[in-house]
Specification:
Helix content is about 40%, strand content about 20%. The protein is an alpha/beta fold. The chain has two domains: about 280 residues, Glycogen Phosphorylase B (Rossmann fold), CATH 3.40.50; about 180 residues, Glycogen Phosphorylase B (Rossmann fold), CATH 3.40.50. The strands form three sheets. It has a nine-stranded mixed sheet with strand order 3-4-5-2-1-6-7-11-12, with helices on both faces. A six-stranded parallel sheet has the order 15-14-13-16-17-18, with helices on both faces. Strands 8-10-9 form a three-stranded antiparallel sheet. Helix 12 crosses helix 17. The longest helix has 20 residues. The two termini are about 30 Å apart. The relative contact order is 0.10. The structure holds adenosine-5'-diphosphate (ADP) and alpha-D-glucopyranose (GLC). Alpha-D-glucopyranose binds next to helix 1.
């Protein structure tokens, strides 16, 4: 039993992805890990996800519950089915609606965003509130994430303000990435049923269309984002992608909480997906992982050459378009190997996917999404490159540190909050940071890391050990969320 005022909290997580069921990026990691810890802290946590076509009912033993569920929308009732599963001891509900979620892809078909995304996620957000009522689960907190479930917070205030069932429910909206705001033409506004009065610049209106995040920034009782530095960045431009004035209006209710890492899965001591486990006091397993990485990515078996790893979505945010401009120079000038896995932008897929043919034995690349290969790169590489233009938190650098794989990154957002910059005089630090978003800075910093590997091996060793001791615990983060939940409950009471 847990909670400041004696009562444990009932918390509903409304999310569009969560491990182990479905993941396209860090959002899935967070929405799988945070409820698990909150549950351990004694709260009654439940998670609700769409039942995407790719989530197998058999694999996860999902059972139907409640019978058909009617969800009110601006256009009347939409019917769906609810399934229940379990994850780490807490219930997970799945909203099944064939025409919304019974297709390949979560948000797009690989090329284009789905045209009915506002209806799909508007419906899903309404369904989360209906689910609570049908289950008779009266949450103290509904915690929603990014544009996909942003509307839960406004719906609570607009549709449910006078519903006694939700009289004690506060909303928390977490921004994982403010670049994806859920902006659509106004066509879906009627379906969403958000009301004419709310179609204003302060709430949902956005250049004549609709903006889901903007509405949640207005209506949520508390707003969080995933690192303290990103919380500062989104108070201004260009960090806020045009939303800074709306964020500033809520700055009293905005909190930056650094993500943790789920060390049950991302720790070389216990990782089940790597060929050998290892410890900071004995890195012999890391050597074996490096050998395995070389084999799998067809890299020359040169023992004394460093490997730079990349695991990423190829999207503008991640900055690989800049790396592309200096990649040939890096490969020409430096004795280094690259192991790359990623997918997204077709131009970047072609570029990085084409490198092994140009530099056989020096670059290995695999285009696509693969959990095991991602773990192998974390474990087998010496460095991990993240040239992000912005990074709300970033989980890969946090994982890399634990694997003794030193990050090379731009000092932005969560990268700045988690990596200690290398000091060449003393050997202090845990990674190589650069500040300007230029191609020269990427080239120089990769060069700096590679020369440290060759010229200052004692610093490499010190940094590796220091990096592996860094611990970004979900427990610390969850305790901060507990405080935010209390603040949201207070804020709800005074909401005008
Ligand atoms: P973002 O959510 O912006 O993509 P994060 O660093 O927070 O960035 O999280 C990315 C997560 O997705 C990490 O767990 C990373 O390992 C995983 N990931 C990204 N691309 C791939 C890929 N191609 N294959 C496997 N895992 C990937
Ligand atoms: C977003 C951000 C990433 C963050 C993740 C989880 O995908 O791009 O930086 O780590 O959400 O919060």
């Amino acid at each position: 039993m847990k909670k400041k005022n004696g009562k444990k909290l009932k918390i509903l997580f409304a999310a569009s992805e969560a491990v182990p069921f479905i993941k396209t990026g860090g959002l899935g990691d967070v929405c799988g890990a945070l409820p698990k810890i909150l549950k351990k802290l004694g709260h009654d946590v439940r998670l609700v996800l769409p039942r995407y076509w790719s989530i197998s009912k058999e694999k996860y033993g999902l059972k139907p519950v409640l019978g058909p569920m009617g969800v009110s929308t601006g256009n009347g009732i939409v019917w769906c089915q609810v399934f229940e599963g379990k994850s780490d001891g807490f219930p997970v509900y799945f909203i099944e609606h064939e025409s919304y979620f019974g297709r390949a892809g979560l948000y797009d078909d690989g090329n284009w965003e789905f045209g009915d995304n506002p209806e799909r996620f508007g419906f899903f957000s309404r369904a989360c509130l209906q689910l609570c009522q049908d289950l008779k689960f009266q949450p103290d907190i509904i915690h929603c994430h990014d544009w996909q479930t942003a509307l839960v917070a406004p719906y609570l205030k607009i549709w449910e303000q006078r519903n006694p069932f939700f009289a004690g429910t506060a909303s928390v909206f977490s921004i994982h990435n403010i670049a994806y705001q859920g902006t659509f033409t106004a066509d879906a506004y009627g379906f969403l049923g958000l009301g004419r009065d709310n179609f204003t610049d302060a709430k949902f209106e956005n250049f004549g269309g609709i903006n889901f995040m903007k509405g949640s920034i207005f209506y949520a009782d508390a707003i969080t984002t995933v690192s303290p530095t990103y919380a500062k960045e989104i108070l201004g431009e260009p960090g806020a992608n045009g939303l800074s004035i709306y964020i500033q209006r809520r700055k009293e209710d905005l909190f930056g909480i650094l993500n943790g890492a789920d060390y049950d899965h991302w720790d070389p001591e216990v990782d089940q997906l790597i060929p050998a486990n290892y410890y900071s006091r004995d890195l012999s397993g890391k050597k074996l992982c490096k050998e395995a990485l070389r084999k799998e990515f067809l890299l020359d078996p040169k023992e004394r050459v460093p490997i730079v790893g990349i695991v990423s979505r190829f999207v503008e945010q991640k900055g690989f378009q800049y790396l592309m401009l200096v990649m040939h120079r890096i490969l020409r000038d430096m004795d280094v190997q690259f192991a790359i896995i990623g997918s997204g932008d077709k131009g970047q897929e072609d570029f990085f996917g084409g490198l092994p043919a140009l530099y056989p034995g020096k670059v290995g690349a695999w285009i696509g999404y693969n959990e095991r290969k991602a773990h192998l790169i974390e474990a087998g590489a010496d460095f991990f490159l993240m040239p992000s233009l912005y990074e709300p938190c970033g989980l890969n650098q946090i994982y890399s540190l634990k694997y003794g794989t030193l990050p090379i990154a731009r000092a932005t957002g969560g990268l700045k909050d988690t990596i200690i910059p290398y000091e060449e005089k003393s050997g202090f630090g845990t990674g190589f940071l650069y500040y300007q978003g230029t191609t020269a800075a990427i080239y120089d910093t990769v060069g700096w890391a590679v020369s440290t590997y060759y010229d200052r091996p004692e610093h490499m060793e010190l940094m590796r050990k220091r990096a592996m001791l860094q611990h970004f615990s979900w427990l610390d983060a969850a305790k901060q969320y507990e405080d935010v939940y209390q603040k949201a409950l207070l804020r709800r009471e005074t909401w005008q």
